[in-house]
Amino acid sequence: RNQPTMRVLAGDIGGTNARLQLWKCDSPNPSISEFTLEHGRVFPSKDFKSLGSLVEAFLKDCSIPVPFAGEVVEAACIAVCGPVENEDRMCGPVLPEQPPTQWNAQKSDLFTGNLAGVIQRAVLINDFVGVGLGLTALDREKEMAALHDVPRNPQGPIACVGAGTGLGAVYLTYNQAQQHHVAWASEGGMTEFCPRTEEEWQLRQYLFQRDGHVTVEGVVSGPGIANTYRFLLHQRGEPAPEQSEEKLEKWVVAQALSGADATCLRAVDIMLRAWAAKCRDTALSFLPSGGVYLAGGLAPRLLPRMRAIMAEAYGADPVMGALIRTFPLYAVLNDDVGLLGARVRAFYLARE
Q1: Three-state secondary-structure class, residue 205
Q2: Distance CA 140, CA 156 (A)
Q3: pTM of the model
Q4: What are the phi and psi torsion angles at 108 (to 5°)?
Q5: 42 C-beta neighbours (distance < 10 Å), count
């Protein structure tokens, strides 16, 4: 063929699901928008014992011959739930609730065994680095909602704090030579939770007595909503529901948004104000003239309440509020932004 098909593989592997996509393009020197989706699939993460076995199963599902029989994937980027060293290997703790952390995954897994010769180049990235890169490829009109709408610098630093099952963070800087933003890993969601009100101080004491530690993630996340709801019931001497965190969080959010339960609404509002405080801290750390972005699974679901709470709370710093309010604040409505970011990184890798 005069114009051989170029393929890139993108993956986003979480504790529950592993989502993979294969994209292709027949044009020489293509832009990322010229690629079309050839195949996508979601696998249960727990069904696999290694990164290589997962990717091998996906390629076979794509009808890409494995072992190697002539067809290649030019570049692969896999976003994984945990710290990654030098885009090469996972380096974080093993977490029982997140099976991929037990794989000891490294990019060399994609070049050995039955995969030898199939994938030409590969990198591993932290899942929230994927979210950060995905921000740069979103449709700003359709996939974002401005909560504090002031002018942004398209080449300025970007910060993102995303709440879902956990609390992720990432920041980006613009590389003039490469003409695109570069994402930098962070574990900012695991910093200490610092209360600002008497109620938050009591919440911190409640969680500390229960767990022995209190991170921002323990308040600003789906489980954080469940934690805060249980705390409010505890304050009134009422028993907490015997439900899983996931089921309780979904019920609390539904009750809060429908206006059916004032305690549920209070739990959501406490979480949103704590999220806004984390954004204020992040804004002061990175001076993100390119914007602060709220990503993760909670942002699309809580958007109506975020509009009511976040804009005012985001700028409510008694000392540096005027500066913070010069940085725009956006909610990200695409909850597949991490997978999009893995595709962006795979595309850059294919061009290198």
Answers
A1: helix
A2: 16
A3: 0.92
A4: -65, -20
A5: 12
